[in-house]
Every structure is written in structure tokens, then in C-alpha cells.
Specification:
The complex is a heterodimer. Chain A is mainly α. In chain A, helix 1 runs antiparallel to helix 6, helix 2 runs antiparallel to helix 3 and helix 3 runs antiparallel to helix 4. Chain A is globular. Chain B has a two-stranded antiparallel ribbon. The longest helix of chain B is centred in the middle third of the chain and has 30 residues. Classes of the chains: A mainly alpha, B mainly alpha.
């Protein structure tokens, strides 16, 4: 993990930098959407941010199971990195969403199915971080339990809110986009996913170093 | 299986005996639930009349709030004299301990709900008892889901710092689906023209939620409680 991390990070960071530097050019060249105009371009950030969040949430769930049942410390470090990133990308989605909403729906926020789900998922992840921060010694184990429950909750949130009528555009429009709109979208998507992976690797490595430092500190005190 | 149920029964009976001597949990939780409903009444009454459509939400919020209080106290008790460690050291299946604790909490919440439901029906003029079987199904499944997750979280927080505040912080976001399903189902039942197919859907969803979350709780109780 350590060695892989060290080699993987520069590659991922370089790729992310490439996509983020070139993305504005690709986005500017994309045509204006007929009804939304310039505001539609928020979409090139909004959708990829949520996808990056889902990636992080998925990693959190798997890592939590790994830590709880196999006791792998590396899995726990990956889990905390994933949870923090999920909160950050989720926040990006929650900020860009209303910016779009005020133009498209005329209101900043609506208690629509998709929006409710998004805000609750964000809430669960913040609760996870609060537990880790203030739970004291041994809270990693408890946090892993919460991580598993958070994952299991996603389908229920999806179903229980999907029964309501929704104003949010369906995700199914994404694959049907014409090339002019699709290219910048997938460009940004690639950028966000690679950035998410690079940050995951870096953050997990930071946690690893911190653990190593703690071990050294303890060893020094014992002498 | 027989042994599992016997252990669960013993834990349940122990809690019942402790409670029957002090009645602390019963009295404080019931009183808290009643004051919860009253606070909502003051908040939602305009010109002497209750706001329409608030009953379902108030019923479930009162249950969730008093449930959290009971969950916290039920495990606070196990901290004295290291009682929880004693329980965990016993050579029995740990999930059985979870089931025993859960059964005690369900009994307590059943008492609370019996009182709160009557109060809400009375104070908010909600025809809650028009479909008693469906209401019972919603309340029991909803409580099972809420307390099922809550018992696990409360048990694992026993050893954590600032557990009093962390329990609601963790429990509410995770159990929001239960609240959504419970409130939506109850709102359907007290509608002047109830859409019973919709009520059945919410009951079915709650059942599904309970199955998944109780399985998860039984599965994770052992590793989470291991020090």
C-alpha cells in the first residue's frame, strides 16, 4: 500500500492537473444551452462533483467492512480519507446545485427527492467525522460500524425519496447528451475522479505517517 | 438457537427487574414524551386550533426524541460498576445480549407510544385509530427499525467520549428513512380519503428496512463491541 501510494500519487496528481488546466478551455468552447445559457455550464462541475463523492462513499463503505472484520489498519486510514473527501465533494455539489436551481426553478432549494437524499447523505458523513473527532480512544471501530450503516442507508434513502415527485433532472439524461455537451462533461468527470483518487492516496498516506509517528513516539517514551 | 433466546430472555428479564425497582426510565421517558407533544402543541397551535397535517410528524418526532433519551439512559446504566464488561465477558453469544437489550427498549417504547398516540389523536384531532391494524404495523415496524439501530449505536458509544451528544448526532441521520416512511405512512392513514395501497407500500418498505438493519446490527455487534 505504502509503496504503491508513493508511486501512484504523482501520476494521479499529474493527470488531475492536466484535466483541470484544460477543462476551462473545453468548457468555454462548448455551445450555450438554449434555455439556460451560461448557467448551464455549472453542470460541468455539479455532476462530476457528485460522482466523485459517490466514489469516496463507496470506498468508505468497503474500507469500513475491511477494518471491522479483518482489522486492517490501512483500511481505517483509507476510510477516514474517503469520508473527508466525500464531505468536501458533497459540499461542492450542494453549493453548485442551488446556483443552478435559482436559475432553473427560481428557488434556491426545494425539498425534492434528490436534494433531500443528497443533504441527508452529507449529514451522515459529517456525523461520521464528528464521531471520529470527538469519540475519544477506540472510536475508529465505532466509526467503521457507522460507515457500514451509512452505506446500507443509501438504497433506502433512494427508494423512500424517489416515491415523491422530483424536479431534479434524471441521471439518465447524461448518456444521451449530444457530443458538444458530452465532451466537456466527461472531461470534467475524468478530472474530478482522478483528483478524488489522488487526494485519497495523499490523505491516506498522511494518516499512515501520523500513525508511524505515534508509534515512534510511544517507543521513545518506553525507553 | 434455544440457548440464544434463553440468553436474550435473561438479559431482558434483568433489565425488567432493574427497571421495576426504580421505574426511572419508564417515568422519565413517558414524562419527556408528554412534554414533547405539549411543546409541539404550543408551537403548532394558531388561534386555538392545531395546524392541519402536523399530527403525523409530531407523533413520530415525539417517539424519536423520547426513544433517544431512553436509549442513552438504558446503556448509561450498564456503565456503573462495569456492568457492561461483565455482560460482554459472559460466555454467551454477543448478539443475544443485543437482542435482550433491544427487547427491553421495545417494551418501554411501546408504553410511550400508547400514551403519545392517544395524546396526539386527542390534541390534534387526528383520526389515528381509523385503521388500527395499519397504524400498529407502522408504529411497531418503525420503532423496531429506530430502536434496532439505536441499541447498537448506544451500546458502542458506551465507551466513547461525549456519548450523550454523539448518540443523536449519529442516530438521526441514519434513521431518517424510518422517520420518512413512518410519517408518510401515518399521514396517509389520517388523510380524509386514505390511499391504502400507499400505506401498504410504506409498511412494506419499513419491513424491508428492519430486515436489512437488524441483520447488519446482529452482524456488526460482535466486532464493534470488541475492545
Amino acid at each position: 500500500m505504502t509503496a504503491m501510494n508513493r508511486r501512484l500519487f504523482p501520476v494521479l496528481a499529474g493527470l488531475a492537473a492536466f484535466f483541470f488546466v484544460t477543462a476551462p478551455i473545453v468548457i468555454i468552447r462548448a455551445p450555450y444551452e438554449s434555455t439556460m445559457g451560461l448557467v448551464q455550464k455549472i453542470f460541468y462541475f455539479h455532476f462530476p462533483a457528485w460522482m466523485a463523492m459517490f466514489l469516496a462513499v463507496f470506498v468508505l463503505g468497503i474500507a469500513s467492512v475491511q477494518y471491522l472484520f479483518r482489522g486492517k489498519p490501512a483500511a481505517d486510514r483509507l476510510a477516514v480519507a474517503a469520508a473527508e473527501l466525500a464531505v468536501v465533494f458533497g459540499l461542492m455539489g450542494l453549493i453548485t446545485g442551488p446556483l443552478w436551481g435559482i436559475k432553473a426553478w427560481g428557488v434556491w432549494w426545494q425539498w425534492d427527492a434528490r436534494l433531500t437524499m443528497a443533504v441527508i447523505l452529507e449529514l451522515i458523513l459529517v456525523a461520521y467525522l464528528l464521531l471520529r473527532q470527538y469519540g475519544g480512544a477506540g472510536s475508529e471501530r465505532l466509526a467503521a460500524g457507522v460507515g457500514i450503516f451509512a452505506m446500507a442507508n443509501v438504497p433506502f434513502l433512494y427508494v423512500s425519496t424517489e416515491i415523491w415527485r422530483t424536479v431534479h433532472p434524471r441521471t439518465s439524461v447524461v448518456p444521451t447528451l449530444p457530443v458538444d455537451f458530452g465532451l466537456p462533461l466527461w472531461w470534467s468527470f475524468a478530472g474530478f475522479i482522478v483528483l478524488c483518487m489522488a487526494l485519497l492516496a495523499a490523505r491516506a498516506r498522511l494518516e499512515e505517517q501520523r500513525a508511524a509517528l505515534d508509534r515512534l513516539y510511544l517507543a521513545l517514551e518506553e525507553d | 438457537m434455544r440457548e440464544f433466546l434463553r440468553v436474550a430472555w435473561l438479559v431482558f428479564r434483568k433489565d425488567l427487574r432493574v427497571e421495576s425497582r426504580s421505574r426511572e426510565l419508564l417515568f422519565t421517558t413517558v414524562f419527556f414524551a408528554i412534554s414533547c407533544v405539549l411543546v409541539f402543541s404550543f408551537g403548532f397551535v394558531r388561534a386555538g386550533r392545531a395546524v392541519e397535517g402536523a399530527a403525523a410528524g409530531i407523533l413520530w418526532i415525539a417517539i424519536a426524541f423520547s426513544g433517544t433519551l431512553a436509549l442513552g439512559r438504558a446503556f448509561e446504566r450498564e456503565r456503573y460498576h462495569d456492568a457492561l464488561r461483565g455482560l460482554l465477558l459472559a460466555p454467551v453469544a454477543r448478539p443475544a445480549i443485543y437482542v435482550g437489550k433491544l427487547a427491553g427498549l421495545l417494551l418501554l417504547l411501546a408504553v410511550v407510544e400508547a400514551i403519545v398516540t392517544v395524546m396526539v389523536a386527542f390534541l390534534f384531532e387526528a383520526p389515528l385509530f381509523r385503521h388500527p391494524v395499519r397504524l400498529f404495523a407502522l408504529l411497531s415496524l418503525g420503532t423496531l427499525g429506530f430502536a434496532g439501530v439505536g441499541t447498537l449505536f448506544s451500546a458502542m458509544l458506551v465507551r466513547a467520549r461525549s456519548r450523550a451528544v454523539l448518540l443523536p448526532v449519529l442516530l438521526y441521520p441514519v434513521t431518517i428513512p424510518v422517520l420518512i416512511m413512518g410519517v408518510s405512512g401515518t399521514a396517509v392513514l389520517i388523510d380524509p380519503e386514505p390511499n391504502l395501497a400507499m400505506a401498504r407500500l410504506w409498511i412494506g418498505l419499513l419491513f424491508f428496512f428492519d430486515t436489512v438493519f437488524l441483520t447488519l446490527a446482529l452482524w456488526t455487534f460482535e466486532p464493534v463491541m470488541t475492545e
